[in-house]
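Protein data:
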Amino acid sequence: MEQEEAAARDEADSQPLYRIERPVYDEAFISSQLLNRKDNSTTFGQKLAQQFQCSSKRAKAAALTFLPILTWLPSYPVKQYLFSDVVSGLSTGVVQLPQGLAYAMLAAVPPVYGLYSSFYPVLLYTFFGTSRHISVGTFAVISLMIGAVAVREAPDSMFYVLPANGSNASAVLDVEARDARRVQVAVVLTTLVGIIQLALGLLRFGFVAIYLTEPLVRGFTTAASVHVVVSQLKYLLGVKTQRFSGPLSAIYSITAVLSDITSTNVPTVILGLVCIVFLYAVKDLNERFKKKLPIPIPGEIIVVIVSTGISYGLSLSEDYKVEVVGKIPTGLLPPSAPEFSLLPSLVTDSFAVAIVGFSMGISLAKTFALKHGYSVDGNQELIALGLCNFISSFFQTFAITCSMSRSLVQESTGGKTQIAGLLASLMVLLVVVAIGFVFQPLPQTALAAVIMVNLLGMFKQFRDIPVLWRTSKIELAIWVVAFVASVLLGLDYGLLVAISFAILSVIYRTQSPKSAILGHVPGTGLYCDVDEYEEAAEYEGIKIFYSNASVYFVNSDLYVSALKQKTGVDPDALQAARKTQKKVMEKAKSNNNPSMKLCGTNKQQEVSHEVLSYEAAAEAHTNGQLGESGGVSHPEEAAFLEPALSAVHSIILDWTPCSFIDSVGAKAIKQVIKEYAAVDVQVVLAGCSRSLLGELDTLQFFSGVVSTSMVFPTIHDAVLRCLHSNPRTSAAPTDEAAQREPVPSPEGCSEDLTGKADLGAPSAV
């Protein structure tokens, strides 16, 4: 035991000391004598001229910012990086090819457009992107959002035509006309998405992604995965049903599939299930032996090649009615202008796709940048994605973003730069130009299997629910609302509901902040919650009120209510008690009763005060600290007052957490100060930041009963001033244990604290 005490003493002696002795500061003294603002005589015109000033250095910096490839390509270490980038590029291209074909189905366009979208944007991102590891291109969530818009704008019902021979047969679906229209919708939507992302990037709006908090994104993408799986059920089962969009589309799709379940194509189901089992096994092997395998096993391309071969060899399309990809034209399409007449009906959807696409890309880019020790520019990423979408849309592509699965392949196989992405896009180009026709017999059920298995990682996000339940109920609510709203209302309305709920949760937190009464921890200068820490003790007659939120129009009334409730001092009740007391005393005086007992309970001290006569009351403490007397009174003349006059003479508002205040909040606080001043309770502020003081000064807060001498840089400064201005009260904390500790002397108004702090603190007298 003695050894432990000795070790504790040695540890305490080895700690740095923080010792300061100075006068008590208030804002009036600080602003007039201690701090002087720097002279900033630069005019607005001069600032504007500096921004538009051109020089070779600024031009070079702008070029390097706009074309990040120029920062690393000239110094590219060929011997160290090239082999890794080649291996990574080939591995990523092998995955990108089947995903491009599959995700085109989600976008409701022919599969070849998925290959176009896997070439042009990837090529462009190599020049404009700042991330070295993400793989841009087709992505399930974005493709599904585009498909929902395409189906809404070009539903099947618009393209039923009567047979050309004029027979009485029922109308047939013109698939070519429908697909052509949906391609136009997807292309125009992509153009608008690119314009929005480019404009936001040029306006430095890269921060917009912060409004898509992580629980919101994870709940939203999980819901999108549900929509994707539901949309692929008909391809997996080989049934032909209508594609739905809008609210409750997932429920309608499931109902349609189940109602037509009797027409399931058995060979299609068998082939699809075999592909799913194989892909799942390959993914599991890649995960278990990722440290031993030089490159991941390319399960997707194996499935595509084998299923294409089986389909061609067994004539699955002709003999077994298995749906296949169909015609894939060879070569690239010439550039053409989008159908801009469709723009007005796509504005809202384009904003949703633009924000979600950027959010997915920047989150993964920042993850890899943090892991590998470099930085990414959010604004330049917006510009890069905007250019990729805008320019590529003239070559018949649909909107793209970063793919999580391909990015993990590109990074895990040793990719060092976007040279890997460039090689992957060249592999896709080779297929489009030379051998695209080979994949025409590819069964659609195999592509559905590729899509479903790639979403397994998304469904693992359900594990977030128990974690968030233990850590943050509000973030759990955001996750659940984003998921449920997106599943039921569709991805567009669901995203809007989720963002609105996330913003409301922030408002709720500011409306319901944690408030407390602080007490002094003897010998430290620290102030902590008296209800939470037993060492914290209040000073007699002083209440220190803490609230961890800013004061503005949303919560100003709640702040004032919490202040009165926590301190137990209600100015209105005290005013009413004074009026009642005065009436009773006047009545006693008019009745010539020299001694009348007035009883009231003080909520703070839980004691009774006696008023013996009007003259004695006049000489008592102005705040209700009434003396004792042994006078006799008649019991029937006793008046019980509740509440009685307060023993609190000072209230300190700790504004350390307060970052801003508006005019409504300033008026509310100023009114509270006036109300307390009317009952002889002074209210002072402590811990205000310099920016907050500037806002208060702009709002003309310091006028009338409020002055800068009522604002103190620290709580301890405020406590010392309150003790000094009320010498009749005890300077010791009310806690008996705390009274044995040395306490600051109010007369000296100085501070001498010894505790654990940073070494090198200034010493001043």
Residues 84 and 340 are 43 Å apart (CA to CA). The first strand starts at residue 135 and ends at 137. Confidence is low (pLDDT under 50) at residues 595-644, 735-765. The two ends are 40 Å apart (CA to CA).
